[in-house]
Amino acid sequence: MGAFHAMFWNNRVFVNIKHQYLNNEILVRYLNLDVEKLEEYYNELRYMLPQIMISHEISPMFATQDYDDRVRDVQKILTRIDNIYLTLPPYDVCMDGSRDYGGRLYKSLNCHRYLFEDGSRTNPHGTGLIYADSNEYGYLTYDDNSGREVFWLKRFDLTPVLERQELQFDLAELIEEIDAANANIKQTVNPYIHWLEGVLRVKCVYAKLLNEFYHIRHSFLDEHEIAAQFAKYLNTEKLASKAYMRMGSAEPQAVKYEVFRADDNSKPILCNSYDFERIGDFLYTDFFCGLKSNHVPKKCANCGKWFLLPHGKYSDYCENPLDNEPSKTCRDVSARKKYDDKCRADPVWLAYNRAYKAHYARYMKKKMTNVEFEEWGRYAIELREKMVEGELEFEEYERLLKI
Q1: DSSP secondary-structure letter at 88?
Q2: In angstroms, rounded to a whole number, what is the distance separating the alpha carbons of residues 71 and 53?
Q3: What is the pLDDT of residue 350?
Q4: How many Cβ atoms from other residues are within 10 Å of residue 140's Cβ?
Q5: Which of 3, 121, 191, 290 would be 24's cystine partner, CB 3.0–4.6 Å?
Q6: Rounded to an integer, what distance in angstroms lies between the CA atom of residue 354 and that of residue 307?
Q7: For the chain, what are the domain ranges?
Q8: pLDDT for res 176
Q9: What is the pTM of this model?
């Protein structure tokens, strides 16, 4: 899917040097991803990869039709994944604008075009093959790498392999060519499977670990509590049936220390530096760095979306705008909800709320001036605080609120 470079320092991550994130900021994007279709793609690719490997002995039907159908089905899935992963960090900022990221399986098979029918015919003068500008198998195009015209395949018909097998022609070389093509196919499709596995692990492992083990008392945990809860979580993995349902570990990376400056005016910092091939390895490394600095994702109790808790300030609610009231956030709603809950459940707040409504009604009917209403408001808050501190009896508190 594309390697990328990341440097870790304090609670920040620098991707490909110039793109800066907080620890677990990228993980939040993946936690909010709808993975239902991705699980289907994962299962389909694992099932279909062996079916697009070229056998040393193939049947006529497989060679002429079945193989092309299977290649098209796999490429469709890869294209759908391309349309998702290229919009997500870090890939969205790591893309090379001059590079075409689509049709990777077709590109891979075109590297072995001599295995496939191309509709060419032999030049009668014996000077090579003659190609039409286009036919049912593909079209002539210019290859920037070789600097010459090549016939680009869009249909993959293995008839030449079948013919060479029937004629027993140069079979050792054919087997070598087939093995090279199969290795290239694996190198093309497996990174997609690994990416899907890393993303599915986010939902099956990280979300569970955070929801059920980290956010147990709605506050940040210290390092000893984190260790204890992580150990409890690991015990639940014994029942996991698939690889992406287990935390696993990060593949060994090239790790070094690197001096970095954000700009010419910044002081130098010493960073842990990594080169990542897989998103799963990056998320694993970033996640545990974030735990140490309390940069932890949380699922909003109002909208259900994941957000990154601000450093040092715990909340059950995010600051995303409400769909039906963009001027307010989920955190605003939570403040009102907490107040309403207090008014319903706490006699002290219930009495205060009733008194406030009664005095507000008097103010609206102009039986109290604005100054008088504000003075009563400050007086009522003082009474409420005295009541909370145990300095008043409840009956006296209710009587004084009515004055």
Answers
A1: S
A2: 10
A3: 86
A4: 13
A5: 290
A6: 36
A7: 5-11+199-308, 31-196, 346-401
A8: 94
A9: 0.81
